[in-house]
Amino acid sequence: MKTLTALITLVIISSSYAQQSNTAIGDAEKLTYTASYNMSGLLTNLAQVTMETTRVATGKKEYLRLKCNAATYAKWDSFFKIRDVYEAYVNPNNLTPYLYKRDVSEGNYVKKEKYTYKHKSKTIKAMMQRRKEPVTKTLPMQSNTYDVISTLYHIRNMDINKAPIGTNQKVTVLFDQKNQIAYLKLLGKETLNTAIGSKECYKIAVNNSTLKGTNKNIIYLTADANKIPVLIQFSIPAGTGQLTLNSASGLKN
Predict the structure, then answer these.
(1) Which candidate, 44, 35, 88, places its Cα nearest to that of 66?
(2) How far is it, in rounded angstroms, from Cα 77 to Cα 96?
(3) What's the burial of 112, exposed, middle or buried (CB within 10 Å: 0-12/13-18/19+)?
(4) Helix, strand, coil in percent for the chain, rounding step 5
(5) Residue (of 54, 144, 138, 150) closest to 102 by Cα position
(6) What values do phi and psi take at 231, rounded to 5?
(7) Are 187 and 216 in contact (CB under 8 A)?
């Protein structure tokens, strides 16, 4: 059961429209979500997902740290305990990634990853470790290569408003030391009642081999300068569920 990993993957796969400098992500932003899963026909709240940004200085450079924590609520820990941490360090001006770290603990399943971006050589040093010795690979880095967290924030800097309804684009995301291919389709706009008020949202479908059904996995992004994911509906082979925004603070706009 890797429901939360699938949820996060679903969010970050949405990355294709034209890129621009950072106009959407603040230095002290915090978004919190409830992760729910369909159990015996009932949508059950299982976990909290928190996404935060922090400005940090390392040596001669300054970075924006993008951090995501996923943790099951205490009453579910005895059933299936999840404590996942994702971190990316990016250029605060244009969100170019430099370092990515992932620490997964889901029941008896544990894994660590570390990606170091080598921009001069256009390569990525990718380390993955389960319970044995770590495995390191050198991967090619293209102009659109991102890890799951840096891609998540890049989506909010894209000119989605310029894309016509029905736009269908191919996307590549680096995950588990390999490229993941997905197809992103803009279905239109829809107004939702959210924890931060009534919001007009972009409705985006994500289709790939790890997700179930066509146009069944939907991301709703606020159609404003912040492009906040307020609702994510997912359908995977193990079941269905959603990620719902609870609160948002420290927004740039």
Answers:
(1) 88
(2) 36
(3) middle
(4) 10, 55, 30
(5) 150
(6) -155, 135
(7) no
Radius of gyration of the chain (CA): 17
Residue 188 has pLDDT above 60, yes or no: yes
User: What are the strands, taking DSSP E only, across 78-167?
Assistant: 83-90, 97-106, 109-118, 123-129, 135-140
- Amino acid letter for position 224: D
Q: What is the pTM of this model?
A: 0.86
**Residue-wise pLDDT tens digits, 1-49:** 444 455 444 544 444 444 578 989 999 999 999 999 988 889 999 999 9
Average pLDDT over residues 220-248: 90
The DSSP H or E segment spanning 182 is: strand 178-194
Q: Is the pLDDT of residue 61 over 60?
A: yes
Q: Which amino acid is at 179?
A: N
Average pLDDT of the chain is: 86
CA distance 2 to 112: 15
Nearest to 146 by CA among 169, 121, 122, 174: 174
- Pick 96 or 4 by higher pLDDT: 96
Check residue 12 and give its pLDDT: 43
**Residue among 95, 88, 90 at smallest CA distance from 21:** 95
What distance in Å separates the CA atoms of residue 55 and residue 248, rounded to the nearest whole number?
Answer: 18
Could you tell me if 37 and 117 are in contact, meaning their C-beta atoms sit under 8 angstroms apart? no
Token digits of residue 137: 């690979």
What is the rounded distance in angstroms from the CA atom of residue 134 to the CA atom of residue 141?
21
